[in-house]
Amino acid sequence: MGAGDVGSTHGFALAQSGLCEEIVFIDKNEDLANGQVLDLVHGQSFFPTVSIRTGNGKDYTDAQVIIITAGASQAKGETRLDLLKRNVGIMKSITRDIVHSGSEGVVIVVSNPVDVLTYVFLEESGWDRGRVIGSGTVLDSARFRYLLSKQCGVNVHNVHAYILGEHGDSEFAAWSMTHMGGIPWVEYCQICRKCDHCSDVRADIEQQVKDSAYHIIGYKGSTYFAVAMALIEIVEAVLRGQNSVLTVSVLLKGEFGLENVCLSVPCIVSDEGVKEIIVGHLNESEQQHLVHSSDIINRAIKEIKK
Ligand code: NAD
């Protein structure tokens, strides 16, 4: 993984999780990677035994999971599109290094825009779609579950709810899949009665999820704790072959009527990455939202190919 804010915070969480034997940081900023490693190894006596070191492209070869968190930040006067093109360049160069290493691991793309960059990795590598996962809306779904649990006074572990589509402004809550304690959301509202205008509360919660990153970035510059934990969930699913249902970004090939675009939909994630895409029923509005997300990502892909 990379050694920036997201990579290092994930490394910190991973070191404590006991999930792996070795953590290797690879970053263009070698001083930063060295510093993160030193800081982490000094905590060795407080967490399960794990080797932590810096590395290079050769370390991709036998890695079970490769987490791409490399990203450039916006330079003065640079447009979003220029930044996107620069990040596409970074992704292509990392992809070539990973392919060159002969890696058979699973790649998790985290760098934004994650859906576009997952697509770029797939196109550049030619790998099977299951092995290339975007962290997608795993984080957004966790934010959604948290907000629902607060609103309804139900433990977050008893809330099943998903944010689908683009990891970005066009993402949407799949209300038709939302369950509280095993009961569909609509029925649960009749029992819960904690709010007077459920539809307003629903819209507000959905908006809060979309605005989360903007708020956190406004307060402290970047987001890294929750995404680091969302990555633990994905890594654990792969390393333990857990068949976890996660809304990772995956290349669609006809599922939900969409072709050749990476989007977050419920997937079964296991030791070989995405094992299956769960093509459940979306209501008409949710399907329209998914198509809208797909249009946005396709437009971005066209832009970078110009
Ligand atoms: P950061 O600036 O702290 O870290 C980025 C790192 O990438 C830096 O350490 C930099 O040296 C490294 N880097 C740049 N070019 C490189 C290259 N060519 N090869 C190797 N390393 C290179 O940023 P961050 O806060 O850690 O965020 C990283 C990425 O994750 C961003 O794109 C951010 O938008 C994204 N992100 C995604 C989610 C999500 O849910 N998908 C959440 C938070 C952040």
- Estimate what percentage of residues fall within beta strands: 15-25%
Structural class: alpha/beta
CATH architecture descriptor name of the largest domain: Alpha-Beta Complex
Largest sheet: 3 strands, parallel
Give the termini separation: 30 Å
Helix content: 40-55%
Shape: globular
CATH topology heading of the largest domain = L-2-Hydroxyisocaproate Dehydrogenase, Chain A, domain 2
Query: How would you state the average pLDDT, rounded?
Result: 95
Q: What order do the SSEs take from the amino end to the carboxyl end, as H and E?
A: HEHEEHEHEHEEEEEHHHEEEEEH
> Helix count?
9
Small-molecule components bound: nicotinamide-adenine-dinucleotide
Sum this structure up briefly.
This protein is of the alpha/beta class and 306 residues long.
List the helices and strands and how they pair.
Layout: H1 5-17, E1 22-25, H2 30-41, E2 51-54, E3 65-68, H3 80-100, E4 106-109, H4 114-125, E5 132-134, H5 138-152, E6 159-160, E7 163-164, E8 172-173, E9 179-180, E10 183-184, H6 185-192, H7 198-220, H8 225-239, E11 244-246, E12 249-253, E13 259-264, E14 267-270, E15 273-277, H9 284-305
Parallel strand pairs: 1-2, 3-4, 4-5
Antiparallel strand pairs: 6-9, 7-8, 9-10, 11-14, 12-13, 14-15
The structure holds nicotinamide-adenine-dinucleotide.
